[in-house]
Amino acid sequence: MAERGSAAVITVGGKGSSLNSSSVYAISNGLAQVRVDSSALDRLSSTLPNQNPPPVTKFQIPIPKTLTLEESRAFLTVLLNKLLLGSSIRTAFAVLISETLNSQTETLQFESVDVTEDERIVLEKLSLPSVLSGICAVLDHKSSALSAIIDAVAALSCEASGADVAAFNSIDSGDGFTAKEEIGVAGDLKVLLNGSKLVGKMKSEDILEIPKINGKLREVVKSVHSSTRVELNSSVKVGISGTAKAVGANALALAAAIHNLGESSLYRAKMNLNSINSDGLRSLFEKDCSSGDNLRKTYKLVLDANFEEDYVKFLHEANVLLGMVWKIVTWEAVLAFVALEGGELLGEKVNGGDVVVDKKSEKKKKKAVLGKGTGVIVQLIKDRLQSKSLGILEKWSEDLFSFFDPRDPEFDGLLTKIREIVESNESRRLPKLPKGTRDFAKEQMAVREKAFSIITEVFKRHGAMALDTPVFEMRETLMGKYGEDSKLIYDLADQGGELCSLRYDLTVPFARYVAMNGLTSFKRHQIAKVYRRDNPSKGRYREFYQCDFDIADFEVVKILTELLNELDIGDYEIKLNHRLLLDGMLEICGVPSEKFRTICSSIDKLDKQSFEQIKKEMVEEKGLSVETADRIGTFVKERGSPLVLLSKLRQEGSLFLENSSAKLALDDLEILFQALEKSKCIDKVVFDLSLARGLDYYTG
């Protein structure tokens, strides 16, 4: 590992060592000197052979004119490291590059040197990869630092604008479909704003998008960091063009994420500025901070260079874009700080009271409390300004810009403090929800309570009595009732008593209640939570509500249409099938009776997967022949108006009429459909032969 010691010296070329982006950044910005490990120099040849020396020609290390001094020094640092990885060059080249890097001059000029043909080939082959890797290392280090502070800056803006941040609490819905980094940003924001009395009711898309924008940058930065580390320490053997394209692909994603961050941060900076009455500060902002147009123009230069496959220019422009966005984010931080504390700290000092915050809002904010995390950051900034005793607007704004500059000696302290805030026990990162579960805030609860009241009223209208059953049952009551889905039952730990499990649904507990009490006729309704040890996915949770109305009658469908109509959810359809018809269909297709339940479980997935996927499962995993699976495929495609499809299935010659189970089901369905037609709700029902359940207690 390249080390940065107390004397700010970074050693390269040591046995088993590797170069990282932070070291490249330090050397390229003159924050550290480079030292070549003596063992690396020993591996290189010091002179040309005395006998038959190869011919030499003049050669000058090419530094592209488009590069900045920072980028040029990064290029030379990486070139030096790659030369030390085992190339056949003389010691003098390594010494020349290290001395040039340590010279701290404002320009980099190399005199032409004598090289052999082999040395020229090596230097030319390594030049382009070293340029690309060097700039990538700078991008990696700066973007990593940026991604580490942007959440804290955004949190300050949330308080400065009194933004509504309640939505951050529901980012992780528990369905497994929210990006990990987006959830991480929301969590950090909650920690930073924990205890804040300044966040309020101001709704803004530019606040709500923070987790997505910042989370995407985090995600891309990690990818760039991983690939850059490899490129910095790999020797170039073949595929220089491929390396350039691979580096370009990663950097392109980074540029897009940086551009999006810049636009988002610029809006919040302007929002913060609008709450401050300071002509001087506004003038400085308009003069120094990039506009949205400039941001887009620079991003276009990045895209154009990438399209033209000019990868050196592309990475250079990406670095320019990153510097532009760094300044925007810093302005957001400065303006948020002034909006929060400017009137108190700076009103008397700066330009005779040039910085003024609205008195009413200032009075209100003095009484209010900052978040535990943001409060620490604000105090750090105040301590910095007070230690400098700056009294001119330009001076203290300039000093704050230095504070947020990765080259500033105190920047690492700021970065460390932010990390401590979001990770320390004192701030306590809020506990995470188990996957597949979710919280319901007051707004969601209001909707739920309204919906439940409508549903309950419809149930009562039809004479149903309320029933509540325990959230857990005897394990023996639940097992064997759900076919393949029995594996999804949550078992409770055996503590030396009865073996119990969390209920999987409300129907089996209801059946247990009926059996225990010897009931033969009972209408009941129940709305309660059930639990399934399933893999969370979109719309599929491990804990959720079921609304049950149990009675063996067409009235169940009638009740369902009534309550859905009264809930006013828009268009809907109720799928309906008969278990005996499903069994008859499987028998007609040639499915062995012992496989009925497991094949039903496969068919049940047709609303989420294609038939080809289901067919593969039935054939390869469950042992059906291809012919049997294809016959099933012809039947499960049948769906339509209940009476129309029923008539089709009962036509003369229909295979369903030759099967006793199917014929009995069709007779039942005819009675049911006629009843639904008379009750004027059949238009909401779809007769669908693909509707299948694997639950063992379904009989009709």
From TrEMBL:
InterPro entries: aa-tRNA-synth_II/BPL/LPL (IPR045864), HisRS-like_core (IPR041715), L-Aspartase-like (IPR008948). Transmembrane segments: none annotated. Residues 436-700 form the Class II Histidinyl-tRNA synthetase (HisRS)-like catalytic core domain. One of its GO terms (molecular function) is catalytic activity. Coiled coil: none annotated. This is Class II Histidinyl-tRNA synthetase (HisRS)-like catalytic core domain-containing protein. It comes from Citrus sinensis. The lineage of its organism: Eukaryota, Viridiplantae, Streptophyta, Embryophyta, Tracheophyta.
